[in-house]
Design a protein that fits this description.
The chain is an alpha+beta fold. It has one domain. Helices cover 26% and strands 13% of the residues. Strands 1-2-3-4 form a 4-stranded antiparallel β-sheet, with helices on one face. It is elongated and about 60 Å long. The chain starts with 5 loop residues before the first helix and ends in an 18-residue tail after the last strand. It binds zinc ion (ZN). The site of zinc ion has 9 residues, from loops.
Length: 102
């Protein structure tokens, strides 16, 4: 397979509205509001080849799943379903927000 010249690609895209940048920004904002369900840590999007295969026709950027930067937990950002448990021993501060209110 021969790859296209990047300059040729840019020439073809001249005048075409950019729908990718707003979609990426929207996803970044959505993920910045998410917290890990296990430890409350910050998360980032993680997209696998499987996520790309499941991309719907109306999606510009795949949602993928959310990976916790602290414990490594992997979960679905929409349903909260945990795909991979993280290692809670990697959490330095106790997750006091998960404790019942006194
Ligand atoms: Zn976590």
């Amino acid at each position: 397979m021969e790859l296209m010249n990047p300059d040729d690609i840019l020439a073809l895209l001249e005048g075409v509205p950019d729908i990718i940048t707003p979609a990426v920004e929207a996803r970044r904002r959505r993920f910045s509001d998410l917290k890990c369900p296990a430890c409350g840590g910050n998360v980032r999007p993680e997209v696998t080849a499987e996520d790309l295969e499941r991309l719907r026709a109306d999606e510009v950027v795949p949602d993928g799943r959310a990976r916790c930067d602290t414990c490594g937990c992997l979960f679905d950002p929409t349903t909260g379903l945990i795909a991979e448990r993280g290692d809670i021993r990697r959490v330095i501060e106790p997750a006091t927000h998960l404790l019942p209110k006194a």
